[in-house]
Amino acid sequence: MKTENRVTDILGIQYPIVQAAMSWITDAKFVAAVSNAGGMGVLGPHAGHNTSPSGPDEVGKRIGNEIRKLKALTEKPFAMNLYLPEDGHSDKYSEATFEAAIGEGVKYFVTVGSVNKAMMKEIKDHNCILIHREVTPSPKAAKMAEDHGADLIIATGYDEGGWIPQNKIGTFSIVPTIVDSVSIPVMAAGGINDIRGVRAAFALGAEAVYIGTRFIASEECPAADATKQDIVASKGSDLLMVSSMQRSTPHQFARELETLYRNGESSENNEKRISAIGGVSTSMLHGKLDEGIVSVNTAIDLITEVKSCKEIIHELMADFIES
Ligand SMILES: Cc1cc2nc3c(=O)[nH]c(=O)nc-3n(C[C@H](O)[C@H](O)[C@H](O)COP(=O)(O)O)c2cc1C
């Protein structure tokens, strides 16, 4: 297959693979490893943090520091994740993140949430590349994002790790649906852990893949070793729904949440319980598996080894590597 396509052209990268933003478990070293291996790394919102920030000012400072570290580790393109609140609303944490990123010269943003016209305009006014990911994707939202300046769209299937779409539409269904609704290139996300997933994504019309869970089990990801080994050992059939938003590998806290949810507790209350313990930081960053949740995709049976980011990229991108 040809190495270059519209996505590699727009992003200025070698292979059509982007490492997904993942809240507590991205930092400068990890993102640089992906970018230096020919993909694009994306700093998540808690980039390099070990503890909860005291407020938006501290978030801005921390993000600025991490981006400076990242720029010292790579000259290749990388992106910053940015949460977009509903149109007409603002978010102080998101604004602080954006200002810090712009201050450090960041040129690529992966936005997540809803189409927020003012924030999307701001990104484009700064001549940045805008990659939009609607949490619950739909043709209408994708077209709206395109109309408001998105350069690329990520179509995420229900199979994904992290906060899952609320329409329960799998990757096989959502990718071609979104491809048919926009003229800009689409990246596929959700359950892509090996080369078969990559080939399927391209067969469905995607022009790149956006990969989270597979990269957690990499040497450079700041997730705890216990978390990486948990992913290697767990099976998709073991996963528990802890709310309508997230699934987890089965450990004590996740079992408690799953029992509550199955017995009628609202997703909102369980999400509050997860936020109260610092989101996925307790389990995924600090490795206390019984005290938090380990949020992963449904295809984890395919992850059998922790490898370097470069090895993962070479495996997944084998069709794009000229021999
Ligand atoms: C542990 C974890 C944390 C995540 N946190 C974020 C986040 O902070 N922001 C975001 O836009 N997406 C987040 N995601 C979603 C990913 O960006 C991406 O959509 C997803 O991982 C792709 O599916 P995959 O895990 O099947 O590869 C997270 C995913 C995981 C697994």
Automatic annotation (TrEMBL):
The keyword Flavoprotein applies. It holds the Pfam family NMO. InterPro entries: Aldolase_TIM, NMO. It comes from the Bacteria. Transmembrane segments: none annotated. The keyword Oxidoreductase applies. Keywords: Dioxygenase, Flavoprotein, FMN, Oxidoreductase. GO terms for molecular function: dioxygenase activity; nitronate monooxygenase activity. Nitronate monooxygenase that uses molecular oxygen to catalyze the oxidative denitrification of alkyl nitronates. Acts on propionate 3-nitronate (P3N), the presumed physiological substrate. Probably functions in the detoxification of P3N, a metabolic poison produced by plants and fungi as a defense mechanism. This is Probable nitronate monooxygenase. It comes from Paenibacillus kribbensis.
